[in-house]
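call fold(seq) -> tokens
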Amino acid sequence: MKPHVITFLAPKGGAGRTTAVMALASAIVDTGSYRPLVIDASREIAGCRRGSTLSIWHRMMQRCGVKEDQIEYRQAATREELARIIQAEADKGPLMRSPVLIDTSARLDDLDLAAADHADVILSPFMDALAAQRISVALDPLDVRAPIYGLRCGHAFDDSQARAVSAAFTVGRLLQHGLPESEILSEISIGGHVPHMCMKFAIEPQGEPLASRIPSLRPIYAMQSELRKLVNEVMLALDGYELRPRHPKARRHPLPLHKLAELLPT
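ret:
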């Protein structure tokens, strides 16, 4: 049985693809229900002595206490290699069925298109409305079977940008949840596991009492909560469901008894 494949596709540098992969994979591990497979198809490996951003992050995940049976990391440099990795995951059987997250490059080359072909869901991260528009223009000509969802990251997640981002991203639907601006997420590649980073930030001595640090901790825990909601929404999308914004009807107040009596026939 084919595993669920999430491809992060955004043909623009600095869109937030790799950060989104790391954040979502870390949050999936934190649920304890899945063992995600992260595939690095960004071809960043060739130009880095220390390894790609994802390989460094994976080592940091292990230093944070994440075990090998909780997350798996692979690198794919060709279309054939990518297909072999996904097939090997499928051969493990339905009991080991876990989401596969594929990071792509900013070039939209043959390997990126292969990753899009394997996808059950395509997530397109972006940081602002201009990036959302450029990504939409680049992805619009593609013939892909998987639904494309816009993933708002950083500044694009602000409420003030909601109308501009909604108008700019035209190639698919926007996810209701996203990745807000956070110093934790900006350092995730060298910090590793998000819950571990949040706990470390909370308990490290900062030279001031904990009570006075509560306002600075609130955005951290709000980010964690938003990340959990994003995982739930993506898992629903993999099963073919979508979250829609709810617009409750205005509440109708019942008439007082004396006014109701006036309406009754005498």
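The longest helix spans residues 210-238.
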